[in-house]
Design brief:
- This is Metallophosphoesterase.
- A seven-stranded mixed beta sheet has the order 4-3-2-1-12-13-14.
- The chain has about 475 residues and is of the alpha/beta class.
- β5 and β6 form a beta hairpin.
- It has 13 helices and 14 strands.
């Protein structure tokens, strides 16, 4: 696994042809259905979560589907809406709020649904869609077929595709009694108490960033992300710029502190006069720099002496917690392992299945198993890539990107083809990152590549690695 928050490692493919025109020559049968799949839009929520940063792109995509000249179906594979993030509304009231806030979206769904079938599966964030039958009728009025099931299958050539959102593979977001409006898994409480609250107070910050907490995955990275955003966005500028020089030379000071310690115990003689003389060549500026370094070394030395016993205490405390078994599971799901295991079981039980398609983890990926494909549709939310700064021990920078993924699945002469396309979207880093964040990570911008075209056949498809 990489050190970044969901780094994609697939080669990128440019799509120059418009959807519906590309790949026609590869189809084994023009009457075969074609499937377009998106997931994890998370539309809606309290206050700042109401803003949908990709709404224009979504409308553009739906308009393209409206003009398609092929037998196509759009599958929205869970978490289309952030119903968990509405904390002041109950039940079907949330649908009315969605229509009121996004009238253009629902009218475009109605128009697109006249040309292609639109199928909506519930996820965990919009599980209530499976809990109230009234949602089926309401969505039907906009030509959307809401299927109140955890999974569906679709034919593709002489094989099938398995669709599921994937939250049932996640112990923190699984519903033991699917469709029960009163069941609340652990993830529900996190989103209502943390994510929704962030949406309510985000605008109060110096910069409106706290609302993006819903895009931070895995959840264990939220504390580091929060520290990073506080340091670069909320900390008083004078305080931040006073601390930055100290943190930038921390590594150098740590080396110097070790050298001083070795000198004190007589292991190694530190050439203090030589170092001071080197700084002295720069006059008063050099003398000031040497004094600041000396102070820094003293502070670092004290911190190291304090940290050593604290470190041992923390390790002993962790071992005690482990012995008592007070923490049984991690909060978030493994990015790929549960889905690969589930897909392999499904392939064995239903060998006609060519593709296992899921979402939930927000990591676009394609993996191959014995000629069958395990496909993650990713998310349309902002995604963050953790980047260490170029020097010192400053907090890492969480570099934002958008990957508005559209998965296309169709039967072709060579097998069942799975392709990814991304909608164009301006780089959010230009507006989301402060000057300090951009400066300290210069040259460390992530490459937002996505999975390319892969074919499932009866022999063995070319293997590609999942996004971990």
């Amino acid at each position: 696994m990489t050190d970044t928050a969901g780094e994609d490692i697939m080669p990128q493919r440019e799509h120059e042809e418009t959807m519906g025109e590309a790949h026609v020559e590869n189809h084994a049968d023009e009457d075969e259905p074609v499937y377009y799949v998106i997931s994890d839009l998370h539309i809606g929520g309290d206050e700042q979560l109401e803003h949908v940063e990709f709404l224009d792109e979504l409308l553009s995509f739906l308009k393209r589907l409206e003009q398609l000249d092929e037998d196509a179906e759009l599958v929205i594979n869970g978490d289309a809406f952030g119903l968990w993030e509405f904390t002041t509304l109950e039940g079907i009231e949330k649908f009315d709020a969605l229509v009121e806030r996004y009238p253009n979206l629902f009218e475009q769904l109605r128009a697109t649904g006249e040309n292609v079938q639109i199928t909506l599966l519930p996820g965990n964030h919009d599980h209530e869609l499976a809990a109230y039958d009234a949602y089926v009728e309401r969505f039907a009025a906009y030509n959307v077929d809401l299927v109140q099931e955890q999974s569906i299958t679709r034919p593709v050539g002489d094989r099938t595709i398995h669709f599921e959102h994937g939250n049932q593979r996640d112990p923190n977001n699984r519903f033991e009694d699917f469709g029960n409006p009163h069941e609340k898994p652990l993830g529900y409480y996190y989103n209502t108490l943390v994510t929704s609250r962030a949406g309510q107070v985000s605008a109060l910050g110096r910069r409106n960033w706290l609302k993006d907490i819903q895009a931070v995955t895995p959840t264990e990275r939220v504390p580091v992300w929060f520290l990073s955003k506080y340091f670069y966005n909320e900390m008083h500028p004078l305080l931040r710029y006073a601390i930055v020089p100290f943190l930038l030379v921390f590594n150098l000071s740590a080396i110097a502190a070790i050298a001083v310690g070795l000198d004190l115990v007589g292991v190694w003689s530190m050439p203090t006069e030589t170092v001071e003389g080197a700084f002295g060549r720069f006059g008063s500026a050099g003398a000031l720099a040497f004094s600041l370094l000396a102070i820094n070394v003293a502070i670092v030395g004290i911190l190291v002496l304090v940290w050593i016993p604290i470190r041992f205490i923390l390790q002993d405390f962790k071992r005690t917690i482990d012995r008592f078994g007070l923490v049984e599971t991690e909060f978030t799901v493994d990015p790929s392992k549960p889905y690969r295991a589930a897909a392999k079981d499904l392939f064995e039980e239903h060998p006609e299945t060519a593709v296992f398609c899921y979402g939930h983890t927000h990591r676009p990926a394609v993996d191959e198993h014995d000629g069958r494909l395990i496909v993650n549709t990713g998310t349309w939310l902002k995604r963050f890539h953790r980047r260490q700064v170029i020097a010192g021990i400053l907090p890492p920078v969480f570099h934002p990107t958008f990957r508005l993924n559209i998965v296309r699945i169709a039967a072709e002469d060579e097998g069942v083809a799975v392709e990814y396309e991304t909608m164009d979207k301006p780089d959010p880093a230009k507006t989301d990152l402060t000057f300090t964040e951009r400066l300290l990570t210069v040259g460390r911008v992530p490459d937002p590549t996505i999975p390319d075209r892969v074919v499932a056949d009866d022999t063995r498809a070319a293997s590609t690695s999942p996004d971990e």
